Each structure stands twice: as C-alpha cells, then as structure tokens.
C-alpha cells in the first residue's frame, strides 16, 4: 500500500504515522481479521500494490496505537496487560490480543480499550460484543481460566460536557458492560467465519466472483424521511416511515425529503478497495 502526504506534513511525523506497529504473530487470522468480510480481506491482498491512503487518515488509529503502547508498559498488580493468545482449529491458527485481564476472586474480567467518538458509545456495537466474546473463548479454551466479565473502556476523543444528546456519555471515559456468550455459541461463530474465509480464498484462486458483502458488513444506513418547510434550514422531524412523514408534512404545510440509505463502508472507502469492487461500482452505474 502506498502512503501519500497530500498536506505536506513534516517528514518525521509522516515516518512515525506510516510505521506499522501491528503484528498478529504466527497466526493466519487475528480476531479482527476473522470478523472482517472475507471479500474485503481477499481484495485487499489482491490490490495491495495499487491501494493508496493519505497519511492524515492514519492519525486517529495511530494515536490509539500509541496509547495502547503506553498502557501496555504500565504494570499494576492483579492485571495482565496486552497478551496475545493463539489457538488452532482444523490446522488454521487464530490469535487475539487481549488489552487487559483483571484477575478477581470470581475469575478474569476482560477489558478492551476503545479510543472512539461519542456516537460510538451512543449506539449498539455488535462488533464489540463479538470481539470480546472471542477473547473470552480464547482465554477459557487456551488458558483454562474462567472469564466472569467483559468490559469496554471507552475513551471519548470528542467529549463535550455540555451536550444534551440522549444517551451521551457521562464523562471523557466510561466503562461499558458487554453481554457474554457461551463457549458453544462462540466456537460455532468462529468455525463459520473460518469456512467463509476458506471459501473466499478458494473462489479467488479459481477466478470466481467473491461472495457479495452483506448490508451489515457494508454499514448500510436506513432510508429516512425528513419533514421540512420552506424558510427553515433544519428538518422539523425525521421518520423511518414515509406515511408518518407525509402525515406530519400535511399538518405543517411542508414537504418530505427522502434521505436514501447508503453503504457507508463503501461510500467512505473504509474498506480501501471500493473502486475495484464490482458490487459497489455496479450500484454506482445503476444509480449514477
């Protein structure tokens, strides 16, 4: 992947941001890679030499990496920092780096640091639940130790004390409890994901089309309907139903503005390969 510097940032900063600190050790899949869409993983490998990213896009993730490094170096009795755990299934090794393990009388509490914006903690994050439950399964399977709790330590990068938004975080950092799965549910999920990645790899090797990403994998937003009125910049109210929006628009003597849902992972090129993706490019050609 080529890293560009369109803003002309100083060379030492670029060198630091461009450095890849991540390693998954001797494993074919990390937990996050296992969870990622197989199509994206295969396409990233295929187009790695052609992919570009500007160094400014690395700032947020690298700041989180630097903070993780600082936390890893701080040893406190009763806690295990940054342990990568390996496990093999059917000849394939997966690994997960557990940020923090708190040792209690009831068992281990797994804690994962997230450096996020406020909106991330204001909505449900299924990926957080999946990730931490795979960590739980790894700890219980490999280390043979009971896990009694899962928590996210969310550090809010854009926190403001004066926000009046519903469910807004109470402080710059908050602890979030994550529901726990049983081991059978987690292992079933892991095996299913491995099967999906195997199938994608085989399809690519035989020159076949890769399985399309799902709406969930593409971060598809819902289509909503905003009730608006001439002379007013903001919407009076937003609905998921066209019928409800139309009813209010008639009462307010306004009109309805349709805001179509979009695959945000694709439109924002968060996958990095959207310009080569037949699925996304096909949609753009149909709906230019």
Could you please describe the fold and organization of this structure?
The mean pLDDT is 91. Strands 2, 4, 5, 6, 7 and 8 form a six-stranded mixed β-sheet that branches. A three-stranded antiparallel β-sheet has the order 10-9-11, covered by helices on one side. The protein is α/β, with parallel strands linked by helices. Helices cover 36% and strands 24% of the residues.
Quickly describe the structure.
The chain folds into two domains: 2-205, Lambda Exonuclease, Chain A; 224-286, no CATH class. Helices cover 36% and strands 24% of the residues. It has helices spanning 11-18, 31-35, 38-46, 59-72, 118-121, 126-143, 183-205, 242-252, 264-267, 278-286; strands at residues 2-4, 29-30, 52-54, 79-89, 92-104, 107-116, 147-156, 173-177, 224-228, 237-239, 255-259.
Mean pLDDT, nearest integer?
91
The parts where pLDDT drops under 50 for at least 5 residues are: none
Class based on secondary structure composition and strand pairing: alpha/beta
The second-level CATH architecture of the largest domain is Alpha-Beta Complex
Main sheet attributes: strand count, strand direction, barrel closure: 6 strands, mixed
Report helical residue fraction: 25-40%
The ordered H/E elements are: EHEHHEHEEEHHEEHEEHEHH
CATH uppermost class of the largest domain = Alpha Beta
Distance between the termini: 29 Å
How many whole angstroms does the radius of gyration measure? Answer: 22 Å
In total, how many domains does the architecture comprise?
2
So what's the overall shape? Answer: globular
Enter the CATH topology name of the largest domain.
Lambda Exonuclease, Chain A
Note the total helix count: 10
Strand content: 15-25%
Number of strands: 11
């Amino acid at each position: 992947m080529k890293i560009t510097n369109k803003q002309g940032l100083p060379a030492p900063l670029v060198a630091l941001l461009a450095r890849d600190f991540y390693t998954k050790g001797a494993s074919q899949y990390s937990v996050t890679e296992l969870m990622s869409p197989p199509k994206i993983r295969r396409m990233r490998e295929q187009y790695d030499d052609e992919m570009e990213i500007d160094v400014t896009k690395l700032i947020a993730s690298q700041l989180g990496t630097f903070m993780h490094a600082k936390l890893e170096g701080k040893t406190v009795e009763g806690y295990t920092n940054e342990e990568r755990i390996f496990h093999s299934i059917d000849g394939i090794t997966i690994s997960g780096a557990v940020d923090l393990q708190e040792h209690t009388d009831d068992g281990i509490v797994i804690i994962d640091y997230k450096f996020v914006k406020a909106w991330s903690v204001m909505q449900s994050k299924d990926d957080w639940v999946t990730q931490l439950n795979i960590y739980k399964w790894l700890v219980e399977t490999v280390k043979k130790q009971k896990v009694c709790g899962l928590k996210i330590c969310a550090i809010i990068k854009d926190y403001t004390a004066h926000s009046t938004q519903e469910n807004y975080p109470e402080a710059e950092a908050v602890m979030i409890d994550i529901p726990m799965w049983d081991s059978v549910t987690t292992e079933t999920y892991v095996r299913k994901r491995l099967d999906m990645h195997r199938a994608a790899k085989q399809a690519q090797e035989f020159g076949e089309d890769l399985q399309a990403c799902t709406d969930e994998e593409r971060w598809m937003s819902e289509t909503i309907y905003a009730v608006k009125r001439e002379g007013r910049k903001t919407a009076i109210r937003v609905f998921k139903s066209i019928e409800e929006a139309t009813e209010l628009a008639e009462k307010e003597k306004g009109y309805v503005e349709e805001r179509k849902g979009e695959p945000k992972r694709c439109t924002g090129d968060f996958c990095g390969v959207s310009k080569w993706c037949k699925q996304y490019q096909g949609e753009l050609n149909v709906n230019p």
